[in-house]
Amino acid sequence: MSKILIADDNEQIATLLAKFCVKEGLEPVLASDGEMVLKQFAAHVNDIAMVLLDVMMPKLDGFQVCKLLRKDSMVPIIMITARDEDCDRIMGLDMGADDYVVKPFSPTEVMARIRAVLRRSKSLETAAGGIVTISNLFIDLNKYEVRIGPERIRLTNREIELLYTLANTPVRMFSRDELLSLVWGDDYEGADRVVDTHVKRLRAKLEQVPHPGWEVRTVWGKGYKFEVL
Known about the structure:
The chain is α/β, with parallel strands linked by helices.
């Protein structure tokens, strides 16, 4: 059984989420502070399929933990917070989180987010073997790794999935709605401007290394496409 690491210093919330995760066929592993998250993750690293990570935790907060986990792992991470502010959402995404849930929430909402993230990751990895190679670009969704030539590019999970979706079908134009469905999942309820934000950040990171043979291009008023030059 795949394991899910639930990190929350509120024992009542952690226990409730654990019960719902068991119903989803996931074995919960609990942690009540940031340092314990890292220890539990290291102890179960080969079995953990997802991390539910509360932002406000003792010792190390969720943002710090997310950043540390992302140094060595691309495991899906859903941040949980009581602060419904854009700056917190942006910080979590910049640290590498895959999704964001704001308290108070219903356990069924969290389970829907978990299913969506795991389903999306699995479907993307199995498509075309999860590997795309174009010119000096190499994308491996099985390892969540992107390279331009010999240089590894540090991208978030969502940025890798977005780049893979575009590059897996070069020349095809994807509308924002299509990218929301394919990358964020049908359960996503946010605005389509999130696509523009992620494309902007993705481009900024890709531009750190020369890649004259291809580009992520904006089709004005319509969407985006991966173009081989």
